[in-house]
Amino acid sequence: MSTPVTTASPSAPAPSGGGHKGAPRLRTPRKKHSPGRPKRSILLTVLTGLILVYTVVPLLWLVINATKTQAGLADSNGLWFAKHFALWSNIHDTFTYHDGIFVRWLLNTLLYVVLGAGGATFLSILGGYALAKFNFPGKRGIFAVVIGAVAVPGTALAVPTFLMFSKMGLTDTPWAVIIPSLVSPFGLYLMWVFATEAIPVELLEAARIDGAGEIRTFFQVSLPLLAPGVVTVLLFTTVATWNNYFLPLIMIKNPDWYPLTLGLDAWNSQAQTIGGDVIFNLVITGSLLTIVPLIAAFLLLQKYWQSGLAAGSVKE
Amino acid sequence: MTTLQPPAAATRPPNRPSEKRDRRSWTGWGFIGPFAVVFAFVFLAPIAYSIYLSLFRDQLIGGNHFVGLDNYKQAFQDDQFWSSLERVSLFLVIQVPIMLGIALFVALALDSGRLFGRDFFRISIFLPYAVPAVVATLMWGFMYGTQFGLVGDINSAFDVTLPDPLSARLVLASIGNIVTWEFVGYNMLIFYSALRVIPTSLYEAAEIDGAGQFRVITAIKLPAIRGALVIATIFSIIGSFQLFNEPSILRPLARNAITTDYTPNFYTYSLSFNGQQHNYSAAVAIIMGLITMIIAYVVQLRGMRKGA
Description:
The complex is a heterodimer.
Chain A: H1 42-65, H2 70-75, H3 87-133, H4 139-151, H5 154-167, H6 175-181, H7 185-198, H8 201-209, H9 214-242, H10 246-251, H11 260-270, H12 280-300, H13 302-309
Chain B: H1 7-11, H2 19-54, E1 56-59, E2 63-66, H3 70-76, H4 79-112, H5 118-126, H6 133-144, H7 150-158, H8 171-196, H9 200-208, H10 213-224, H11 226-241, H12 245-250, H13 264-273, H14 278-305
Antiparallel strand pairs in B: 1-2
Helix pairs in contact in B: 2-14, 3-14, 4-8, 4-11, 5-8, 6-8, 11-14, 13-14
């Protein structure tokens, strides 16, 4: 039996009888992870590159084909540009088709995201903070119920939720999409873990001793510390709301309240109906316009959400 | 049976919370209250309502009346339901391991520090997560097409006839590919985040012990991210059982291959919104929910029990 490598006693005997090798080791920044500098591997890069090709090619296809007319889609190679570069006219047509319904869908989506994802993030912050920093009766119960609810397929709830909402007259209104979006069990869990690590109890004690009320303590002491976690939760709830399809599909019948996802689906299905206008070029361009804001948000906010996802658990 | 009472219990003062705890308990509720209220409204109430619905039946004669477990009995004898369940089970047995396998490979590759351009890889492979299921499905649907898709291009360029990805035989695999494409980066990031917080001291110890790369992966990295692996598996299983978006959006392109009872969820949706059978639909949804919960629970127990 070899010695188990998982034991990490700080006082591990050095191989040469305790003599230190040369200069004392400086702490390297946490960028490098394994001790020493691992050799870059071409083989591993190529293998990972194959997976990169798989994830990126469809996005390239989307960008390339957003530059083609309906005719150009059919008679050019899928992964190369057609003779006629039609991106600008496609974008113009996407925004103006059917009296600019696409703009309306975009605004609806923004409304659902601002109120739904924004609200979900706010509720998650408050709830996660409570779970992390307070003792209250029923705390374990709340946690168990929320975790149990995560395992309930959301779609199993869709039909009863629809029936409930239609009795209340909420269906076919923005509220039917916004209210269910307000609860993000994943967001709550993430904020709970994050707040546990990020807010030292001593700081809260100090604030209370200084006579700050709970609300003031929360906004002035705790919230700034939670910022990276907030960005992470906000980004993930935004994606969930922006990309939601099943919920609006059930709740919304009036095209005036469609989010982008339902609108694109409707445009795509239009080609199947008798006498329907075939506008695949607009479906593709609209799809591209739909994903650009999210991808931009992910790229711009990288620093924040990645540190948030690591949930403040940097140990070394 | 009488057991000796531990002395502590006998002499414990009556359980009266101190004033401080009292104040605290109240503030805790103040913070979690808003979440709890909305949660009760959009989670607990629909679950309760669903159970209520599933015990009734709406009939032309006699209207809405209590039928006990009849709807459940009907579901257990319903071939459409069982075949849809079989289909998603087959889907998950094949798709989930492939997806998580690729995600784990990329996460370990990123974490090893042996890649050129690590950050570029990480963000690019994650990007599909930001793409809505609708867009991902429309996109892949076009590419699968022979008319102006990549499959058509390959066919004409190489003068071959590839099997049609939208045929009844292959469409499930094609859906699996779309789902894999959407979520491989997300799972990779979950694994990668878990790998990043493994204490460096473990690697130093491993180096001293002379462990090779492979041994470090099996003895340190995989056990350390066990929790993340289990969570990702559970979420992927839940996702597979709920499969709806991709088949629903792909349906216009593959009308004969994708029926309205293609997955359990598609079936409950069709029952409710095309057939107006809300009661029966609720019963099927509850059975699906129970199956999902049981499987998720078993995976969690097994995943957490081994070693560690």
